[in-house]
Design brief:
It is a single chain. The chain folds into three domains: about 10-140, Fumarase C, Chain B, domain 1 (Orthogonal Bundle); about 145-390, Fumarase C, Chain A, domain 2, CATH 1.20.200.10; about 400-475, Orthogonal Bundle (Ribonucleotide Reductase Protein R1, domain 1), CATH 1.10.40.30. The strands form four sheets. It has a two-stranded antiparallel sheet. By secondary structure, it is mainly alpha-helical. The N and C termini lie far apart (about 95 Å). The chain has helices at about 30-35, 50-70, 75-90, 110-125, 130-135, 140-180, 200-225, 240-255, 265-270, 275-300, 325-350, 360-380, 390-400, 410, 415-425, 430-440, 445-450, 450-455, 475, and strands spanning about 10-15, 15-20, 185-190, 190-195, 225, 260, 305, 390. α11 packs antiparallel against α12 (about 360-380).
Length: about 475
């Protein structure tokens, strides 16, 4: 005979029939059916985001408090439900949330999973039956609790992201100051361009991230309008009007968020465009992160900067170090950009009074918020703060570039300047060397005209500081 123990089961019934459920789990028959119906990503490790579980428990707690205050829920049941909700909020029993993130029913499977966990745990606390629908889900539906929980979870994660984006902005500004005196070659279309300082390049990165930070901070207000109390389609059927106002006040108290009842509860029940709007700003951040990462990889390849070495880069080439942190950030950016397409498509799919693809919208939104937060944090700690400038290499490229003729063009004229640049390239000489050979400028004049102070600010280099005539009106107009 086998030594294996038989699993202890309990029987539950719904209108579809009877089903056996493991006796040691808090979920029930509705969750068990959903678990069987949607075995899509769970084996891959996909789970309902813990912040969404916490947010859902906050919603259920607010509902229980409001129902108890209005006399719709017995005090002992309400207190047991509230206790169970608090445990979920603290992180307990999350392993009993077993429905797949990709589920049919606009989030009904998750709502039922949460209801059953709370009800069964509350029954255990109270010592008598607490019903998942008649008690825990009273005056509620998936269609108002799921969007509300999704918005709360998104706000909490959005705040975390905004904070680390602020750290990235600060790190870039620190490098802007550190590299303010490092003169280097600018590049446009991957070709030599006029000089710039490394600090100026980092100032542009910092400003781009500052915009992202501000946009993320401001967009939180778009998520604060909730439809809790709207129940199935936003009309509020089966919900006491007093309850609708009271439950949102209780939810504000529990979350600490400045939540407000939507003016039209039907609107956020059927329309999810706010999530498309918010995620669009996550996409904008991802685009900036990709661009900045790509630039830093290029400058590292040119040896103008040195990235922190965090791990060996090759299994065959000893001593090779790759820009792995920035490559990771770029992959996260690509994922978020692709997530934006999914959210846009799913948002557009909403039909009449409901969007059946809401679980995809929420899962994808929370994923983007989470991975962006983690990636930015890693980028700051393991890359940006440790970047060093290679001033010698920056100067080397600048001195050998034909682009160095550009600040002298106002004194030489465009055609003459182009001839000198061409001669320098053909003879493999620097612009300085060709100018000296031709006796066009003295050493002192070149020191003034090509000084960092003159090359990276508005105006004509050296104007008023060298006794030279500006030969082209075009440059004077500039």
């Amino acid at each position: 005979m086998s030594d294996e123990r038989l699993e202890v089961l309990r029987k539950e019934r719904d209108f579809l029939g009877e089903k056996e459920i493991p006796a040691n789990v808090y979920y029930g028959i509705h969750t068990a059916r959903a678990k069987e119906n949607f075995p899509v990503t769970f084996r891959l490790g996909y789970r309902i985001h813990p912040e969404l579980i916490r947010a859902y428990a906050m919603v259920k707690k607010a509902c229980a408090l409001a129902l108890m205050q209005l006399g719709y829920l017995e005090v002992d049941k309400a207190r047991a439900i509230i206790k169970a909700c608090d445990e979920l909020i603290e992180g307990k029993w999350h392993e009993h949330v077993v429905v797949d993130p990709f589920q049919g029913g606009a989030g009904t499977s998750l709502n039922m999973n949460i209801n059953e966990i709370i009800a069964n745990r509350a029954s255990e606390i109270l010592g008598k039956k607490v019903h998942p629908l008649d008690d825990v889900n009273r005056m509620q539906s998936t269609n108002d609790t799921f969007p509300t929980a999704a918005r709360i979870a998104a706000i909490f994660l959005l705040r975390q992201l905004t904070a680390v984006v602020g750290e990235l902005q600060q790190a870039l500004e620190d490098k802007e100051r550190e590299f303010a005196g490092v003169l280097k070659l600018g590049r446009t279309e991957m070709q030599d361009a006029v000089p710039i300082t490394l600090g100026q390049e980092f100032s542009a990165y910092a400003d781009a991230i500052a915009r992202d930070r501000w946009r993320l901070y401001k967009v939180e207000e778009r998520l604060r309008q909730i439809n809790l109390g709207g129940t199935a389609v936003g009309t509020g059927l089966n919900a006491d009007l007093r309850y609708i106002h009271l439950v949102i006040q209780r939810l504000r108290d529990i979350t600490g968020l400045n939540l407000a009842k939507a003016d039209n509860l039907i609107d956020p029940t059927q329309n999810w465009d706010v999530f498309a709007e918010v995620h669009g700003l996550l996409k904008a951040l991802a685009v900036n992160l990709y661009k900045i990462s790509n630039d830093l990889i290029l400058m590292s390849s040119f040896k103008e900067i040195q990235l922190p070495a965090v791990q060996a880069g090759s299994s065959i080439m000893p001593g090779k170090v790759n820009p792995v942190i920035l490559e990771c950030v770029k992959q996260v950016a690509v994922r978020v950009i692709s997530n934006d397409v999914a959210i846009n498509f799913a948002t557009a799919h909403g039909q009449l009074e409901l969007n059946a693809l809401a679980p995809l919208i929420v899962h994808t939104m929370l994923e983007s918020l989470e991975i962006l937060t983690n990636a930015v944090e890693v980028m700051v700690e393991k890359c940006i703060r440790g970047i060093k400038a290679n001033e010698e290499m920056c100067r080397y490229y600048l001195e050998r570039s034909p682009a160095l003729i550009t600040p002298l063009a106002p004194y030489l004229g465009y055609d003459k300047a182009a001839e000198i640049a061409k001669e320098a390239m053909e003879k493999g000489k620097t612009i300085r060397e060709v100018l000296k050979e031709k006796g066009l400028f003295s050493e002192n004049e070149l020191e003034v005209l090509l000084s960092p102070q003159e090359l990276v600010k508005p105006g004509i280099a050296g104007e008023g500081k060298v006794d030279r005539k500006i030969v082209s009106r075009e440059y004077r107009d500039y």
